[in-house]
Amino acid sequence: MALPASSFPTLLFFLFLISHPRCEAAESFSHYCSYNRPTTPAISKSIAKVLSALVSKNPPKRLNTVSFGGGKSKVFGLAQCHRDINATECKSCIEDATAQLPHLCPGQADAGAWFDHCFVAYDHERVPEQHGTGF
Q1: What are the residue ranges spanned by the domains of the chain?
Q2: How much is the pTM?
């Protein structure tokens, strides 16, 4: 069954919309994982809490550090946005980064990732460094 000629422009427009989404998630252009420091269930819980806290703190500050847990399960986190982006872009980048980072370094207690507009990291021994982000 052939489509009527009048349906062709509508079909092209629909195909264009599918192939060009309006919003795209931030993608990591570089990341690091410390493969010699695996997580434990307690550290994994602390990582999840730290990442959640980083999302809730951005904005207003462009640089935030948080920690969660105690003793051997304590985890430190850092989120930093590039100076030249607005608060909405900052929050969006931090949300995307905190969602992706555990998947970039599964099961690791020390990880960080650079995105176009932000840097996010967590570490179970110390506050993560910016690692030359230039932000």
Answers
A1: 27-123
A2: 0.72
